Amino acid sequence: MSTQDEETWDDDENTIKFLVASDVHLGYAEKDAKRGHDSLVAFEEVLQIAKKEEVDFLLLGGDLFHENKPSRKILHGCMCLLRQYCMGDRPCQLEFLSDQSVNFGHSKFPFVNYEDPNLNVSLPVFSIHGNHDDPAGSGNLCALDILSAAGLVNHFGQHPSLDQIEMTPMLLQKGRTKLALYGLGSVRDERLHRMFVRKSVTMLRPRENQDEWVNILTFHQNRVKHGEKNYIPEQFLDSFLDLVVWGHEHDARGLERNDVQDFIVLQPGSTVATSLAEGETLPKKAFLVRVKPSRKMKFEAIPLQTVRQFYLKDIVLADTTLDPNDPDAADKIAAFCQEKVEELLCRAEEEHTGNKRQPKEPLIRLKIEYSGGFPMFNTNRFGQMFTDRVANPREIIHFYRKKVYEKKSGTKEKWE
Amino acid sequence: MSTQDEETWDDDENTIKFLVASDVHLGYAEKDAKRGHDSLVAFEEVLQIAKKEEVDFLLLGGDLFHENKPSRKILHGCMCLLRQYCMGDRPCQLEFLSDQSVNFGHSKFPFVNYEDPNLNVSLPVFSIHGNHDDPAGSGNLCALDILSAAGLVNHFGQHPSLDQIEMTPMLLQKGRTKLALYGLGSVRDERLHRMFVRKSVTMLRPRENQDEWVNILTFHQNRVKHGEKNYIPEQFLDSFLDLVVWGHEHDARGLERNDVQDFIVLQPGSTVATSLAEGETLPKKAFLVRVKPSRKMKFEAIPLQTVRQFYLKDIVLADTTLDPNDPDAADKIAAFCQEKVEELLCRAEEEHTGNKRQPKEPLIRLKIEYSGGFPMFNTNRFGQMFTDRVANPREIIHFYRKKVYEKKSGTKEKWE
Ligand SMILES: [Mn+2]
Ligand SMILES: [Mn+2]
Ligand SMILES: [Mn+2]
Ligand SMILES: [Mn+2]
Q1: Which end of chain B is more exposed for a tag (fewer CB within 10 A), N or C?
Q2: Could you report the predicted ipTM of this complex, rounded to two decimals?
Q3: Angle at the Cα of B72 from the Cα atoms of B29 and A132, rounded to 5 degrees
Q4: Whole-angstrom Cα distance, residue A338 to residue A275?
Q5: Given CB atoms, is A388 within the 8 Å cutoff of chain B?
Q6: Which of chain A's residues have a Cβ under 8 Å away from the Cβ of B72?
Q7: Helix%, strand%, coil% for chain A, nearest 5
């Protein structure tokens, strides 16, 4: 699974090439005058990359929609993009070998869209659902099912039972390369954790020539530990897997090898920042994956050019030369912060991709630790200075204090 | 425009044949355990008729959806039906001669769906929007636009201006038959009435060979006078029209000739009863229309076989032998009404179409005029006798009293 034999990667007939993105969160901040289109713009770029790279499919890791019930505008916008980029004459070369009525058993059209003789699909999209766009309500449908009914997306990885999950992979072959694509739409972490512990999660494997298949799981769960059972440890996952595409986590961590399990975890991260947290500052990306008959995989991170820039700076006032007892301390701190914002704006200008669709106004966040008697200043008034130059003027400043508290196991620091 | 020359109606190459339905109200009573599927069942029957008759298109008169924001289940159900019945290999033989970017100017895909090389459309659907599913919110989109983005419906007759309407027809030709299809999505009646009075509504006509075109308008307004300006008088409409397909009115009145204007009004009515009013008892229908090069039209009413039966009976207690002063009057009236319901249930059983999808439990309404000192009885308890046999047990009985009141112009009767 190394990346040798560079020249043979051009053997298109035997190379499965797909693009991975996740947590597109269409509709995030859709009512924000500045940021309202960010999520759709990033999705369009992902589709453009997929089209340009002539991939065999686009794989999405869940949370395509930010809201369980997307607004009409967002659903419409999404469908228009999919129809624009996914329909066309280029034939899809993937042979679908598994029983589609099992893979898409929950669907009214239980077959892959590119085999529908009435639709010219040039770019198949496979997606699991996330926790934001999970099935709900009468009929247990999710927003993806609307796209699926239109033949625009192949929604997979939906499992009906609450107690037992048996994953049947989609078996895809191109030339001599064989891909077993497993999916598991978002499940509440505690529940799934419990199911794993009880051995109630099983992954079926092809009966014959098991060793010839590259096994990929698309997953949408907490990877970061939020309490004992509120995440899924990587070692819970079967070690026959070659690749886990891990959605839900918004940090674009990209590729990491798990040596114990002997698989690679690809955490694409989100394509739009849905919070002003550190992790969302990592440059947003899509990932190109190539797979060869030898089961070798090659990965290529493709930085998105249209995503709004986001800079976050940590400031500890006690570490500066500012004096908390200065009668003008509040004004001086504000002036200091203004300077920092200006610096970040300079950096944003320098680092702008030049892509016309990348907005000029970045997201800026100053996290200001003000312990030690420092006064706060009016953050609204501060933001007004940057109304035209920052995308989130009212949320630039975040004051916090270090909090020290006792815990059974000893003293720990916690951030307020 | 008579119906002579029967034999030549089989000249398929020169006959445009289309099906008309209206006010499908998908999602009406969707949460009612019994009636929840009625609207979808009727729509499916309409699509089945269109398919069986191999029509050139299906024309819908608005209010396809009952709610402006249909539930996911209903939107999904609608899309599945459209994909099932409207996609296929049978080529559409209608030449589209007008400028599609004008006809579908509001659409992201401003062309008719059957000319999209990526979609195999066998049954084009043309629809205007009604007042129930009119454009609203950000982007001024309506539920039809979701279907249109999916390539499942051609949404026409949307006009951007609030002061001025200029209708450009879709010009459709098959062999030697030419159809100019005008559409006007629902407009608030008072406003449209005012626009007509101000001569702000114009209908453009093809420049050449005007006399060869059959001119059809699809319309969704009050036809019945609800106050001076709260409807559109037929004489407001251009007399060059040959046919007006009049949606919005739920009574299946069918065909009526307007001799003054020299056009035919086809009022299809709704395909599901959305109220227990008299007009909704008229048998629900779709209408087959054939048009020949001579501009002759032939109409065929097709009664729907799957629509829930609805019987309404008017009872005036004073006209019966019942005695208001009988100490058991309430019980006796209830018994009398029970007998009437039984009679209607018998009639329903006799008149059931035999179609498996037509529900066994009809809608039953007794309108009881109880003036003259008659007591009322408990309608809930009454309904409980028919829980299993009537679709609307709690709403069978409607008591009302004749109310006489003075009006400026004299004495009039009004119903409470
Ligand atoms: Mn998530
Ligand atoms: Mn997410
Ligand atoms: Mn209606
Ligand atoms: Mn209406």
Answers
A1: C
A2: 0.94
A3: 140
A4: 22
A5: no
A6: 69, 137, 139, 141-143, 145-146
A7: 25, 25, 50
